[in-house]
Amino acid sequence: MPLFVMGFLTMVIARSTGLVPAEVTQALPEVTGVLLAAALFGLGTGVNLRELVRGGRSLLLGGVATAVIGVISLLGVVIIG
Predict the structure, then answer these.
(1) Could you report the per-residue pLDDT of 18-51, keeping only the tens digit for each?
(2) I need a labelling partner for 79 at 20 to 30 A (CA). Which of 11, 27, 55, 61 fits?
(3) DSSP string covering 48-77, please?
(4) What is the arithmetic mean of pLDDT over 14-21?
(5) Rounded Cα gap, residues 32 and 26, in angstroms
(6) DSSP assignment of 11-38
(7) Do 64 and 72 contact (CB within 8 A), yes or no?
(8) DSSP 8-state class, residue 81
(9) Are 40 and 32 in contact (CB under 8 A)?
């Protein structure tokens, strides 16, 4: 079992049993936003712009993934709405 899965399950158990104070859980959305922004920044700095401009498989894979996610999201909105 990967270590992050064990950590996640430990945090779920800690939160479910009431071991985490309410002040901590109220601050978590803001902390989560900052950490997500930091992770996206880290991913963005690792992008090779020359390879991206050249195109190729990376660009094709990104386009296909974006299209699939967009279609699934649109179908979800149409079905729910």
Answers:
(1) 888 888 888 888 999 999 999 899 888 887 777 7
(2) 61
(3) -HHHHHH-SHHHHHHHHHHHHHHHHHHHHH
(4) 89
(5) 11
(6) HHHHHHTT-S-HHHHHHHHHHHHHHHHH
(7) no
(8) -
(9) no
Indicate the pTM of the whole model: 0.45
The identity of residue 38, as a single letter, is A
| Buried residues in 33-63 as b, exposed as e (16+ CB within 10 A) | eeeeeeeeeeeeeeeeeeeeeeeeeeeeeee
Helix (H) or strand (E) holding 10: helix 3-16
The whole-angstrom separation of Cα 11 and Cα 3 is 12
What is the pLDDT confidence band of residue 1, given thresholds at 50, 70 and 90?
A: confident
